Amino acid sequence: MSKKFIYSIVLSFMALISIFTFSSMNGSTVKAASKTSSNKVLVVYYSNSGTTEAAAKRIQKQTGGDLVKLKLSPNYPSDYNKLTKVAKRQIDKNIHPKILNKIMMNKYKTVLLGFPTWYQRPPMFINTFFNKYNLKNKTVVPFTTSMSSPMKVNRPYLKKMARGKKINLQSGFRANSAKKTTKYLKNNNLMK
Ligand SMILES: Cc1cc2nc3c(=O)[nH]c(=O)nc-3n(C[C@H](O)[C@H](O)[C@H](O)COP(=O)(O)O)c2cc1C
């Protein structure tokens, strides 16, 4: 047997092994994808003056998720001065406003939760959100809009709200900038 012949047999054998490995890998990828067919995304948010709403709508388009605006009771005033008073009072008195939406949370694996930063923290209805809905085993990605406060001011509050609930709480992001939003979504595999 010539060296050339042995060499070509070895090469064909290696090619066969790699084809086999690749096709079985592909099979497991398909299986994994069908297992997570309930891997739907929910973009749920509250916005008083429209900034968080604009961000949520962009995020909905990019993730292909369902979009839900939270309905609160009592609703917040749109007048800025009145709003500041109501929001501050809720913090001081530990008031958790009601959320009226019925959301079929079992449809979703990932929940993007958007809110404006108020007084260096999430608004008090975010407490209600974590108590009202069953978020067990879900990934929750918070996003905020603010005048200047970074997302990180909200984190200690969110961590406390999620504690003991088996929620996969992500660090989240400030969504004022479309560019930074896209970067976060891409880096975290959230683009559709
Ligand atoms: C009651 C209240 C408190 C606020 N506190 C902060 C704050 O602590 N830091 C900040 O950067 N912006 C603060 N802002 C500004 C809002 O976070 C910002 O305008 C936000 O984008 C509004 O979102 P929206 O238009 O979706 O309601 C506050 C606004 C209000 C009404």
Large-scale geometry: globular
Overall structural class, as computed from helix and strand content, comes to alpha/beta
Number of helices: 6
Q: Report the CATH architecture of the largest domain.
A: 3-Layer(aba) Sandwich
Level of helix content?
40-55%
Oligomeric nature of the chains: single chain
Pfam families: Flavodoxin_4
Protein name: Flavodoxin-like domain-containing protein
Signal peptide: 1-23
GO molecular function: electron transfer activity; FMN binding; oxidoreductase activity, acting on NAD(P)H
Model description:
The chain has about 190 residues and is an alpha/beta fold. It has six helices and eight strands, in the order αβαββαββαβαββα. The strands form two sheets. Strands 1, 2, 5, 6, 7 and 8 form a six-stranded parallel beta sheet that branches. The protein binds flavin mononucleotide. It comes from Companilactobacillus alimentarius DSM 20249.
Tag the structure with descriptive keywords.
alpha/beta, Rossmann fold, globular, two-stranded antiparallel sheet, binds flavin mononucleotide, 18% strand, 8 strands, 6 helices
Short account of what is shown:
Residues 1-23 form the signal peptide. Helices cover 44% and strands 18% of the residues. It folds into 2 domains: 1-37; 39-187, Flavodoxin domain (Rossmann fold, 3-Layer(aba) Sandwich), CATH 3.40.50.360.
